[in-house]
Amino acid sequence: MPEDVMVPAGDYKLVKQIRRNQETRRKKDLPWSKRIFDIDEHKLFGRTALGWMRITGFYLVLYALIVCIVAFWLGIFMLAIMDPNKPRWLKGPPGLSMVPNQNRSVLSYFTHIMSEVNPIADRIDDFLNKLNDNAIDFFADFNQDTTWGYATEKPTVFIKLNKVIGYVPETYDTADDLPKEAPESLHDTVGKLGNSPKIWITCEVTNGPKPEMVFYPGPYFEASENMKGVTRVVAIQMNKMPENAKTFFCCKVWARNIPIDDDYQGMGLIKFALSMRTDDDGQPDFELPSTRKAPSAMVTELVPVPPAPPRPEGMLGGLEMPPSPENEKDAIENDAKKEEMTEPPSL
């Protein structure tokens, strides 16, 4: 047909029909129930069972390869690069702790009440047994009464230098090496005992009466790269401990690579307090028998037997009380029989 004969009928637009677009529009027009589970096409969330198997297998293989690659390089790093004889994670300097520690500001106890003394001694025994170094025998001189002096007014505390793997102590070997804040008593101690590397310890009373402190094996920790067992523990026995008073202590350790922080407990120092209370009323202490062996200096006191109550004879001047009748009726009949009189004879 010639072009001049064609007459346009109006505005129109030619739309190209694409099968993919039609499929997309069809899926958009589906209801939500069909999108989740289409029973006609056997699809769950738009995927068939075979489709779900393929995508699951793909991600399993992907993550398995990632794990294998990470494990390979981690094994090379751990076995070939790091020294097995050295710690993998280096920590800071070791801290301090005190035994027995009741998590209280003041360790208060009565010397004559074994129910208070025995738990303290048991905590010390448990602590020393965990050292696995015959620690109880090593410190036996401070345990003559089997209660570590808490029943005989000579309490013993243990200062422990916590274990840090890989820590190498840097010690003060001469008195001239000590810092300015070191006490004068430490200068004398280092001058006498500074023949081998040691981590020094000093203890002073910050408040309260001052007892005599005896250190064992001495006011120091034997310094080495492999500090373990009793080498990390110093025992301090308090002789002439003040009675019925609170005594506050502060112990510090001295080494070049152990900083002392007065604001934090255990950072180069440890603070604790003791209150030894005694029996001043003169009354005997009635305690149940203890499983721990009693100290030799203590004497077992018997509970006095109360006197028997007085008998009624003693209360009535020795006169015996007549037996009480069984009931009131019997008593009346007995009285009537006693008062019964016979008639006089007739004249």
TrEMBL record:
Localization: Membrane
Molecular function via GO: ATPase activator activity
CC per GO annotation: sodium:potassium-exchanging ATPase complex
Pfam families cross-referenced by the UniProt entry: Na_K-ATPase
Top-rank taxon, per record: Eukaryota
Chief location: membrane
Record-annotated membrane-spanning stretches: 58-81
One record GO biological process: intracellular potassium ion homeostasis
Alphabetized UniProt keyword annotations: Membrane, Signal-anchor, Transmembrane, Transmembrane helix
Membrane topology: Single-pass type II membrane protein
Compositional bias segments (type: Basic and acidic residues): 326-341
Family in the record: Belongs to the X(+)/potassium ATPases subunit beta family.
This protein's name: GD20125
Protein's organism: Drosophila simulans
Upper lineage: Eukaryota, Metazoa, Ecdysozoa, Arthropoda, Hexapoda
